[in-house]
Protein 1
Amino acid sequence: MISLTLTKRPQHSSLFSALSPFIAFGITLVFGFLLFLFSGKDPFNGLYIYLVKPLAEVWSLHELAIKSGPLILIAVGLSVAYRSNNWNIGAEGQFVAGALLGSAIPIMFPTLTGWFVLPLMLILGMIGGAAFGAIPAFLKVRFQTNEILTALMLVYVIQLFLDWMVRGPWRNPEGSNFPETRAFNPSAVLPEFLPSSGRAHWGFIFAILAAIVIWFVLSKTKKGFEVKVLGASPRAGKFAGFSSSGMVYFAFLVSGACAGLAGISEVSGAIGKLQPVISPGYGFTAIIVAFLGRLNPLGIIAAGLVLGLTYLGGEAAQFDLGISDKLARVFQGVLLFLVLGCDTLINYSVKLSFGPRAASGKAA
Amino acid sequence: MEITEAILLTIATAATPLLIAALGELVVERSGVLNLGVEGMMVMGAVSGFAVTQLTGSPWIGMIAAIIVGALFSLLFGFLALTLVTNQVATGLALTLLGLGLSGMIGESFVGQAGIKLPSLHIPGLSGIPLVGRLLFGGDPIFYLSIALTAGVIWFLFKTRAGLTLRSVGDSHSSAHALGIKVIAIRYLAVMFGGACAGLAGAHLSLVYTPQWVENMTAGRGWIALALVVFSSWRPLRLVLGAYLFGAVGILQLHAQAMGFGIPSQLLSALPYLATVIVLVLISGNRRLTMMNTPASLGRPFVPDR
């Protein structure tokens, strides 16, 4: 009989802390290899198309920046929330809320031009995301309502609201009957940061900046210390004089603002108008990014690039090999599982034993 | 009369998957485990139930397949959360994300196919009784299963020794362990029961409610089921009340959409989700009720010391 025994390490292993995302990624590669093998495709070619080919050309590097930008931006916000033990899983909704509020300017004032239009939109985007994130925070603080469930329910609500807006009040008055708003005027479009080589927009730069700022706050400031203490032990935090309800608001406002900024950046930089669906699940994939990056903003940059790559690889594999692009989401799900599983190695030493249990091992 | 009867019947149809999935999760949470993967297990049940039905031609085999797949899929969560003591919230989320992705891929070739509905019961004479006849004697088989399951869970949890053991594991895993109870084994069984229920609930969606496969067809019902468990404060009978209340909200908004009224259809579609938020707020405002019934070890990992 095979049995697994966990023994708590005296202190957490920094070796495995650094290694575990790589082990998880490695096992996901093996999983992918087998999956290609069993579906009758050449596994080497499959993995090449999935993970290497998108990096080989300049235009697809730009696509990678476009896909990874929102993932990184949302995930660094989530890292603050998860570290402080606030389970914001409604980032997808805060993304939409930010996109909606930020888009109010170019849609309601289509002739407005000038340098101030974009900054105003971006700020409104952050406010929109933060305000929407504040709802589950308020309910948690005021009524002790479980934030996981409320934040998730609100995702459905805001998605339906967006659907109504683009089919109703905000539908393009000059357009045909498509459910979409008017296209943003050029002053409301987020510019490319390397226009000579491709279409990647400033959203990616915002993501990197946000990661650096939040890394600094988490690792170098008292606020960051507060996040970690309250996350690890609310009781200890209370004795230190930290306010746990203040932290709930802080976590949701920061993660909401990041998601909102990602939303308005995506709409303004990549889509150029509002439509019924504006996200391929970035808000949920960002949860995977946050954990793969070990809730460390700098790790999240790398993790965001990896997950962005799976989106691109999924499209490429569909085009080149005729494999469903849904495979990408399977890879993402498997990766998260493995990351969580490998994290066990950080706090426990795992012993795999074969044969009958030793007599000393009591029934457990 | 005709319309009232039809509405009652559709409410029961809408409530059934919520009730079954929530009953499973209730047992899981009573054992002290929080599995947020209900949505993922449910959607896996829906797709495997539909796929097996299409391949074998028998919705009965499809239904059984959905139950088995739900239980097996929950083992993934069980292995991580129970054996490897990972964070239960994150692991449950992972199960949901994986389930949504995997079901999309499995179901891709089944999109657009006309499904086979599980045949409804029909007892001549009895199902002709006005108002409640078709509801009580002419419903779909999973509806009756949901009633039997409710009774079974109540009996098991509160009238049997095994149920008492399960509750003790959920309330204090260390004391239960000290008494020689196999905490992890019991939690594994509870998690698998939850998975089987979620799978069956998914099968109800793809074999009874709307016999077809659409990606993400659970549409948040797994999450609503989780909310119902909180709403019920871990009591099976209140769960029935909650599931039918939500079934009613879902059906009435559909009827309101059909009749027009000039209310945007999106607002009506959002009602079940808004109702969930409101209900959660109301129930959590009542501290005494929630504190008294919440399994004390809920969500806390257990590593047996040796």
Protein 2
Amino acid sequence: MSYKIVQPNHPQSLFQQSAQLDKTRNTAILIRQSRRGSDKTHIEGRMLQESLIPFVQLAREEETLEHIHIFDEGSGVSGTKGVDRRKKLKSMMEEMVDNLIGDIVLARPDRLFRDKHFSNVSAFTELAEKMKVKVIVPKERGVLVYDFTKYEDLKEFQRAMQEAYAYIDTQIGYMNRARAFKVAKGYYGGGNIILPYVLLRDMPKEQQVIVVYDPWKEQALDLFTKFQEFNFQTSRLARYIEEKPYLFKCMDESHLEEYQVVTTMSKANGGYTIATMESLRRYLKNLTLAGFVKAGKEVATGEIILIPNVIDAVVPLELFDPCFASLTGEHLDGTPFERKRHFKGGANENVDAILHGLLSSDEGDIGVFANADIDYPIYDLRNYNKGGIGKTETLWSIAARPVDRIVLDRLIALAEYDNTLVDRVKQFFAEAHKEGENSLVVLDTAIIKTQEAIQRVGRTIVKLTKGLFDEQGNPIELADNDPNIVEQRNLYMQLRRLQKQRDDAARLSNEDPSASITNFYHVLSHLTTEFHKLPPQTKKDFMRRLIDEVKIQSISPHLFLLHITWIRPLTNERADRTDVALLWRCTPTKSDEVNVWTPEEDDALRALYPNAPQLALMQSIPYKTPGMMKNRAFHLGVRREGKKYDSERFSLTVMYADLEAANLFAKNDKDRNVLWNEINTLSQQAKKGKDTNITALWLFAVDMGSFIQSHNVTDVVTAALSGQARLAT
Amino acid sequence: MSEESSTQPTKHNPSNLSQDARNEKQLSLFFIGLEMLGEKKKARFLLYLLSLKKPDQQNQETKKDEL
């Protein structure tokens, strides 16, 4: 008979005397504060979390931070958010998946999540269990260690997470209810106060009330009156506001002793005004102005409780209500707002512009606009909120079709000279980089857990409504603002965000394009004949997979620079190649310098036009073309004397401003001559018309390999490289 | 006047250019292109060019440097 002696498996206590960290992997520290600005106002909370750094150093017995990864989310990040809205948390979880992290040290478990449905918690614990990552929370006399491979620890952690959410439900909920109660009685409950309301200073803090500051009342009323007069057009009201130096004049010193202004409204020219479209809309929707106060939410239905006549109304309800309804779509009693609106022909959603969403510029945001009637999409450089409230300034526009054609022709040229290109691209995607894969694991786990949470809430909704019918026998549905419906909606939004991030991550991890684009490689092999057959959106997706970055910059009235960084296998697998082209647009960008003749320019034209050489004339009037000068001279009655044609070789559409802009790129006279010649040729080739108004000069040979290995240039290139390569490395 | 004559473009047919002239022009455009890239992209582009050079060519240059 043989015996086997076994030791009883005593469950290890969660609480341990000292932290035994996994030194074969890094230690993560997660720092987070919920309220924006808490890092300054509640510095002790921040300091407590920062004190984890020396704690980990001590536990690891290391002086450097080399193996300590700090994921500092800062302040203003709610624990109710998941990986879809917390980049640092997502990075940490990606490192968990990559087996880089052994322990996560937190000041409190709730620094991770305050999660009602456990979709985020369970995604985290599942990965932590799989990768054997422990959560460590230092306490006064030891540490709490959550080892997720042990079921008891997992249960304890889940309990801690329930407590974390309960804090929001009970503590924060209590504070909100107490505040609502105070506000319902007409007292100031904290936060900003909309003008013309102010606080009375000479009162105990607990009994402070808000009052209307009479000198500002008329102005507030006027805004609503005008809004109604303008047929509820916020843009017209914005222009009206802009014409005034301010809306509410700053108080006199004597009044400031009596009243306190608590506002975030912009201060300018000795008064307060509204500076953005968003704040204008918010102002016109603010129920306080109609004398209402918000007293929390109805727990059962989620409806906001409004109490009328607690404070003095500034705007009568019959004026406020339609303004409110025009912005929210519903009157205060819930009836829908109806108004005839005249929509202009909007942008075609399916606009055929292959660089849509891909083309960018350092000068501002590039949008794509197309009027469906004329089928003429344009890339538009816009500066939002510049030049007025809600105004968008268009700095320049360029026709999309010819730019698209130029880029596509270049791609065809690259593909035609290199018959191994398609195979290289195929191989590149087949051996896809693993960079994005960890992200995919984190997001896939979060997606599954969110879907499970949605199902749980769905089941609750079904149980609540099961067997309920209205008088006509129709099943009763929960109201839109029922807390369960709101939760379900929020979870669906979270799921959509996660799925979108998953799509992006798939692209970053170089998922094979043929998985999402039918016949991708066939089209790439037969670009000339097949590309134009693709639907507009597929064309865009196609280009997106082949181009890393495409940027455009206006450098003069007629000239643009276009930079394209192709994906590596398209040119060379070991380094990035950026192509650069100089684009000529036959119509100059509109500006006063181009459009208007100044008296000085007229004087210069009168003096120089008869005899000066063409270049001297252009230099003296840099924003006018020889063609413009010819017309202006005719108008002024000035004639050119003698034949100058031999030396007048710039085309009638080139400006000196264009040549001067190009000069920046030429390092010597020889290069300048070449460049000016090329610009002249570009200007002659461009013809007014939908598809021919832009011409391009590509600066680099399609086959750069042959170019630099050519005997005539290798030495020169090597000389340039020897100086520059050091800069690059 | 002399400056103008040296900077004025001449009407030409590129196919009429000699091989040398074509090479000169390509080289000029190449250096202009490098300037148009800007410092950051230029540095990366030069690395790309380095990667295009044939290994035996790079070896020869290394030997030259050693000498």
